[in-house]
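Technical note accompanying the year-one report. For the benefit of new consortium partners, we illustrate the data format agreed upon in the data management plan: each record pairs a sequence with a structure-token string. No post-processing was applied to the example shown here.
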Amino acid sequence: MTSLRLAKERSTSESSSPRGQTIGTGQANVKAYNRQLRDLIHQGKAAPSMLVSHNLGLADAPDAYRHFDARDKGWTKVVLNPAKG
């Protein structure tokens, strides 16, 4: 692989700082942590509800999607709850 090609690939997937730190992008390997996270939630050591910014009914879904898609401030994680109507 040529250095130019390598540099181009690096610029699209990760970047390095002058301090030698690297920031990469991509999806987390969620399946590797599912059981561990489940156990922490069950033991009361983790609360996923802390991540939820809005808990709305299905009727609010279109408006919630517009806010979330526009990355409006405060719209970080939306849970749609059919019981809320």
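Partners are asked to follow this layout when depositing records. The chain has a mean pLDDT of 81.
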